[in-house]
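no rush on this but wanted to send it before i forget. theres a chain ive been looking at and ive put its sequence and its fold in C-alpha cell form underneath. please have a look and point out which stretches look like helix strand or loop to you. thanks a lot i owe you, the record is right below:
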Amino acid sequence: MNKTFNDYPDYMGGMGAITGIGGYEQTLRRRAIDTLNHILQRTFLLVSSYGNGKFQKSGLPRHPHGTNEFKEVEVLSGGLTGYRKEIFKEFEFDEKLIGYSYMEDIDFSRRVSYKYKLFYDPQAKLEHKHTAGGRGGIRDNRKMYMLNHRYLFFKNFYPRNRLLIIPHWWSILGLIAYSLISWSKEPVKGYLDGLREFRKRKGELLGVGSGKA
C-alpha cells in the first residue's frame, strides 16, 4: 500500500484485501449454494462483497472484498485501511455511533470519498480474525446495525437527494425479509428495536426535528 500511496499522490486513502471476515473468501461457494441470499442482497440493495466498492442508493455499500482488481472506490472497511495523515486534520470518526461503532469505517470513508479519491489494492492482504465475543447478542447487534444504518443514511445521503428515501426503505424491508427467510425472529426483533430507537433519537442524532421519514 505504501507503494500505491507513493505512485498515486492523488489517492488520499486505501485498503487491501481482507480474508477471514464474514466469510468473504467463501462467498463464491456460498452464492452457488444459496442463490436466494445473493438475489436478496442485490434486489434489496443490501451490503455485499465482490462488488465495485461503491455505495448504493440505499446508503449501503458493495464491498470489493474478494475481487482481484485494483480499483478506485468510495468505501473502505476497517482492518487493512490507511489514510494520509492530512485526512485526520480534516475528518474525525463519529462518536454518536452506539455500541462498538458499527459502520464507523463506512461512514468515515463515505465522507472522505465525497471530496478525495480512495483505492482498493488486492495485492495488500490481511487475515481478519474475530474474538468470540464483543459484538453482543443477535438482537442487540441487529438493533445497532439498523439504528446506525438509518442515522448514516440521513447524515450522508438524504441531504443530497431526498428521493433516496425510497431505496433506503426498500433496503430496510430487505433486511427484515432476509431474516425471516432464515426463520430467525431475533434479528427481526432487533431491526424493529433499531427502527423505534432511531425514531426516538433522530432529533438528538441529527440535530433536527424528529420528522416521520
